[in-house]
Design a protein that fits this description.
The protein is α+β, with helices and mostly antiparallel strands and 88 residues long. It has a domain of 42 residues. The strands form three sheets. The protein has a two-stranded antiparallel ribbon. A two-stranded antiparallel sheet has the order 2-3. It holds the Pfam family DUF2282. Keywords: Signal.
């Protein structure tokens, strides 16, 4: 019984160590705030007349941002122009 507990403890430690190595970098590290591309109610956070996620009342609000893959924001086209890295 004692050997099986020790074996399980070691196996658990090894599994934890391997899992932490296999985890990719945080998703936030590969995302950037892109203003003016979020659809109504699909913004990721604060701006202007609302305080946070999902509260925008109009699509393509230049004060609301959506997290997008880094490097793609300014090439995104909307009916109101391209995305912006800064609020308007």
């Amino acid at each position: 019984m004692k050997n099986s507990i020790i074996t399980l403890a070691i196996a658990g430690s090894i599994a934890s160590a391997l899992a932490s190595v296999a985890v990719p970098a945080s998703a936030a590290d590969t995302k950037e705030k892109c203003y003016g591309v979020a659809l109504k109610g699909q913004n990721d956070c604060a701006a202007g007349k609302h305080d946070c996620a999902g509260k925008s009342t109009m699509s393509y609000d230049k004060m609301s941002f959506k997290l997008v893959p880094t490097g793609t924001c300014t090439s995104m086209k909307t009916p109101k122009g391209n995305g912006s890295l800064t609020p308007a």
